[in-house]
Amino acid sequence: xxxVIEPELMDDDAQARAxxxxxxxVPHERFVDLLVERFGFPSGRALxxxxxxxxxxxxxxxxxxxxxxxxxxxxxxxxxxxxxRIAAAGLAARVTLTQALLPRDPAPHTHYDVVVSNSLLxxxxxPSVLWAAVGQLAAPGARVFIMDxxxxxxxxxxxxxxxxxARGEPELLRxxxxxxxxxxxxxxxxxxxxxxxxxxxxxxxxxxDRHLTVSGRL
Length: 218
Fold this sequence. Notes:
Number of domains: 1
CATH class: Alpha Beta
CATH architecture: 3-Layer(aba) Sandwich
Order of helices and strands: HHEHEHEEHEHHHEE
Low-confidence stretches: none
Strand order of the largest sheet: 3-2-1-4-5-7-6
Strand content: 15-25%
Structural class: alpha/beta
Helix content: 40-55%
Mean pLDDT: 94
Number of strands: 7
Number of helices: 8
């Protein structure tokens, strides 16, 4: 099944609010669980690429109290909800959210001990933007942990996943999930992207019926 791109930014307030209020506790907590299984409890300065409303960012900060985290996202609407979440969680001393659209805008710092991203890759029309940012912003020895959707083999498989995992969600979120599955990359495509970016030492793992991870140290 061919890839069908979707908009890179979720900048509509209604869409951002629906995404922020949705219950992603299971996959987002799974993201942190898998990171901790892979690397333990990292410390230092972390960069969260495409942090959105900062639910993963907040969960990571709570689990890893020795991390200071910069979350970056291109959507002002998403960041409004993210800043509310970080303030309500009492994490503002360790978590800073910045509007930045890479590669046009610089990250808050030049190098990071940890670089993470959840569900950004499938939004990008050019996936090399993510891998270039990882290569440029990860300090030597940095831990890298990326999690994203993977594209199913058919439209029927997309429909099955939407029904299984989003049947109780608002229609807006169901449509977004469907579009994201069509826009996601296959494991084979991502392995080719990593090789082209010079990041072939990173490991790709399929971790659910719809998610994969890319992880390792640079």
